[in-house]
Amino acid sequence: MIRYLITIAVPLLAPMALYLLYSWHLQRKGGEAGDDPFSWREIPWIWLLVAGVTLMSATLLASTFIGRDPDASQYQPPRFEDGKRVPSSFAK
């Protein structure tokens, strides 16, 4: 479950969180009169969505290549040897 959160939810929500943090900082610092960084019409929704989908795609693509076992490896299921459980592994 945590893997899905890290690979899908975090990359999608990170741009929005960063933007809201930036907007909060601008409001706290004091913007021009009439500037409302939290106005829903002022938030660049399309760019936030594009950034989130790009980050999610990069994360999913990277997760397919990082931590892979060689193609020639063979899966060995868990087994008992001499009364002890041996965990599953990949043998070359």
From the N-terminal CA to the C-terminal CA, the straight-line distance is 29 Å
User: What is the count of helical runs?
Assistant: 2
User: In angstroms, what is the radius of gyration?
Assistant: 23 Å
Beta strand %? 5-15%
Strand order of the largest sheet: 1-4
Spans where pLDDT lies below 50 across 5 or more residues: none
Number of strands: 4
Main pleated sheet: 2 strands, antiparallel
Shape call: elongated
Fraction of residues in helix: 40-55%
Following the backbone from N to C, one meets helices and strands in this order, namely HHEEEE
Whole-number tally of structural domains:
1
Mean pLDDT figure: 80
**Class of secondary structure makeup:** alpha+beta
What key attributes describe this structure?
4 strands; two-stranded antiparallel sheet; 2 helices; alpha+beta; 92 residues
Word description of this protein:
- Helix 1 runs antiparallel to helix 2.
- By secondary structure, the protein is of the alpha+beta class.
- The protein has one domain.
- The protein is about 55% helix and about 15% strand.
- The protein has helices at about 1-30, 45-65; strands at about 75, 80, 85, 90.
